[in-house]
Amino acid sequence: ASQSFRTCALSFGAIGFICSLIMFIGADYICEITAHPGAELPMRVISPTLFIICITASIRGYFQGLRKMVPTAVSNFIEAVLKLILGLGGAAFAASRGCSGPVQAAFAVSGISIGVIVGTVYLAITFYLSRNSNIPDTDRTVSSRSAIAKNALRVAVPVTLAGSALYFSTFFDTVVINNRLIFSGFSEEMADRLYTAYTTLAISISDLVPSTLVYPIALSILPAMSAALAGERQREVRGYIHSSIRISGIIAVPSAFGLAVLARPVIQMIYFGSLSKEITLLDGST
User: Fold this and answer.
1) 273: Cα separation from own chain's centroid
2) Nearest Cα to 194, choosing from 206, 180, 207, 205?
3) What is the pLDDT of residues 117-165, one digit of tens each?
4) 198: which residues sit within 8 A by CB, 6+ positions away?
5) pTM for this structure?
6) Is the dihedral of CA 268, 42, 111, 11 positive or negative?
7) What values do phi and psi take at 272, rounded to 5?
8) Are 263 and 204 in contact (CB under 8 A)?
9) Residue 204 DSSP code
10) What's the angle, vertex CA 259, arms to CA 253 and CA 264, rounded to 5?
């Protein structure tokens, strides 16, 4: 287990470091192809999180493999609180000083970077303090790093591809929607307003139930399923899968129908009537 953790942490850390460099150095080019001029500074501010979150994921995975969910929960809570306080506080401070929009955005996303850093520091301290009590040291034989890396890739690659599909679709939305709106005759300002309404209002609400209720269910059954698979208890594995699908469906299906029927009232309730300002489209409709 310790060898697996070290191997995965080094591998993921290397990947995250490379991605952080690409994002930091290529911010100008990314903003150009996505038609988001002025977003270079916020992108560079948030780029270190790509590296840090890879280390965070390794430590969380270690604890979750031991079915210890408290470190993950506490680190997530720390991140969320600091994102809220420092993000809003930083944006308000920049606005009070008369800073430009990109600078205000950079202050806002700095809350994410700081939150991730502090959450990772907490995980690292927790890991260090509990490293001798997590796993009984009863076996000195370990697999080689290459064997562990191959086994990890067999699991990580399919999961990463499946998980990346949503994020790639969001990135393609960023590239396509703004450019198509501008090509259709909207000004850059109007295109940004329409795209922001889509991402900030619609997407945030539609992700609310999955991110807060459904994803934790999937996360919590992984260690239990791994133990059942290792013990070749197939009936127990099927029970975990069926139970998680049923619970997720009970939550998700009513939420989907409710949101489809009450989309505008829900957004107005959560965002305090932010839809009261109408947007006039090209055909004159609002």
Assistant:
1) 27
2) 180
3) 999 999 999 988 877 665 666 666 777 777 777 777 777 778 777 777 7
4) 173, 177
5) 0.64
6) positive
7) 55, 50
8) no
9) H
10) 175
CA distances from 153 to 8, 148, 149, 230 (A): 10, 9, 6, 18
Say how far apart CA 9 and CA 63 lie, in whole Å.
13
> Residue 195 and residue 36: Cα distance in Å, rounded?
11
Query: For 181-189, which contacts have Cβ atoms below 8 Å and span 24 or more sequence positions?
Result: 182/35, 184/282, 185/282, 186/282, 188/35, 188/37
Burial group, residue 65, by CB count within 10 angstroms (0-12, 13-18, 19+): middle
Residue 248's pLDDT band (cuts 50, 70, 90): confident
Q: Name the token pair of 234.
A: 């197939």
Under the banding of pLDDT at 50, 70 and 90, the label for residue 285 is: low
Q: Write the DSSP symbol of residue 281.
A: -
Tokens of 204: 């945030």
